[in-house]
């Protein structure tokens, strides 16, 4: 009679055989072969065989990760970056319904992101930065409820930031910098409970910080706020200090005016503060020079007058006369 140990070995071997002979879902095979046909020779040379998840002695296609679900294998990750892919966004990608990660960054993709992107309900990471994508950011991205990381920076997107992005409850990192976005940043983004990093720098955005944080409890987890190189205006409201998780505030090269509120110096974890090249006036509150974590504060290119406030130094922060406009 077979021992318990023998039965366990037989079971494990049977499982391995089953996994080895699992077939890749035809839907995913068809989609990957369509993508292969559209991407060109730079990818084709490393995508060998008919099955993207591997077939016999052939390994999975480079950049393709699969997992087994029941009797089939499905594609869960597609990472094809920095290979100079030229052409439109491969729409067949939106048929890979089990994708959790899609990374096509640092290529030369053009045209719009198709609205069918909203079909990828399991997607957690979408990385399309450093391409030449155009048109508007499709509101259908707001249907990707599991998304945690969204990288759309360094493209040529135009139009407004869709407020539908506020419907992404798990979103932690939102990168929109270096595009051609216009209009106001939707205040609805402030309702994202897990958002840690918001970068909308180097666009053509307008509006005020007061509008952005107008909801009670806005941006409860936000650590890094990059709004530099836009056309934002108005003053810095004292209510910004309610964002107690802030560590980096980057407001350089806008049209901000008025005094720097005393309350901002009491954001507990503030480490880097960039206020340069705006139209700020008045004093620099002394509390900034006593902040225990503040390492860098840039204030040049404003309307502060030399001598209106003592030039303060402490163990990490230094501000010199050169930082003031006469």
Automatic annotation (TrEMBL):
InterPro entries tied to this protein: Leu-rich_rpt, Leu-rich_rpt_typical-subtyp, LRR_dom_sf, LRR_N_plant-typ, LRR_R13L4/SHOC2-like, Plant_LRR-RLKs
Q: In what way does this protein cross or attach to the membrane?
A: Single-pass type I membrane protein
Chief location category = membrane
A GO CC annotation given for this chain: membrane
Question: Which residues are the signal sequence here?
Answer: 1-22
Q: Which residue range or ranges hold the Leucine-rich repeat-containing N-terminal plant-type domain? A: 26-67
Record localization? Membrane
Please give the Gene Ontology molecular function terms for this protein. Answer: receptor serine/threonine kinase binding
In terms of SMART domains, this protein maps to:
LRR_TYP
| Keywords assigned by UniProt, alphabetized | Glycoprotein, Leucine-rich repeat, Membrane, Repeat, Signal, Transmembrane, Transmembrane helix
Ranges of residues in domain Disease resistance R13L4/SHOC-2-like LRR: 93-200
**PANTHER family with a match to the protein in the record:** LEUCINE-RICH REPEAT-CONTAINING N-TERMINAL PLANT-TYPE DOMAIN-CONTAINING PROTEIN (PTHR48056:SF57), LRR RECEPTOR-LIKE SERINE/THREONINE-PROTEIN KINASE-RELATED (PTHR48056)
Which family is annotated? Belongs to the RLP family.
The name of this protein is Probable leucine-rich repeat receptor-like protein kinase At1g35710
Name the species this protein comes from: Raphanus sativus
């Amino acid at each position: 009679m077979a021992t318990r140990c023998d039965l366990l070995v037989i079971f494990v071997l049977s499982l391995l055989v089953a996994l080895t002979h699992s077939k890749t879902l035809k839907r995913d095979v068809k989609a990957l072969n369509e993508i292969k046909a559209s991407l060109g020779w730079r990818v084709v040379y490393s995508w060998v065989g008919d099955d993207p998840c591997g077939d016999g002695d052939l390994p999975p296609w480079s950049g393709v990760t699969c997992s087994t679900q029941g009797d089939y294998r499905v594609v869960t990750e597609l990472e094809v970056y920095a290979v100079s892919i030229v052409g439109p966004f491969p729409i067949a990608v939106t048929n890979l319904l089990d994708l959790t990660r899609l990374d096509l960054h640092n290529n030369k993709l053009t045209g719009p992101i198709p609205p069918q992107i909203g079909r990828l309900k399991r997607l957690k990471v979408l990385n399309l930065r450093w391409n030449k994508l155009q048109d508007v950011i499709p509101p259908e991205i707001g249907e990707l409820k599991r998304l945690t990381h969204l990288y759309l920076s360094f493209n040529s997107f135009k139009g407004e930031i869709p407020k539908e992005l506020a419907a992404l409850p798990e979103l932690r990192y939102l990168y929109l910098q270096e595009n051609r976005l216009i209009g106001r940043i939707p205040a609805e983004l402030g309702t994202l409970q897990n958002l840690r990093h918001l970068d909308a720098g180097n666009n053509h955005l307008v509006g005020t910080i007061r509008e952005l944080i107008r909801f009670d409890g806005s941006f409860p987890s936000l650590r890094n706020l990059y709004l530099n190189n836009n056309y934002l205006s108005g003053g810095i409201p004292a209510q910004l200090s309610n964002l107690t998780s802030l560590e980096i505030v980057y407001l350089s090269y806008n049209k901000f005016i008025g005094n720097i509120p005393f309350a901002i110096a009491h954001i507990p974890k503030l480490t880097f503060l960039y206020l340069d090249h705006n139209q700020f006036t008045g004093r620099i509150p002394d509390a900034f020079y006593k902040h225990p974590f503040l390492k860098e504060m840039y204030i040049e290119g404003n309307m502060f007058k030399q001598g209106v406030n003592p030039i303060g130094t402490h163990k990490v922060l230094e501000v010199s006369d050169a930082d003031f406009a006469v």
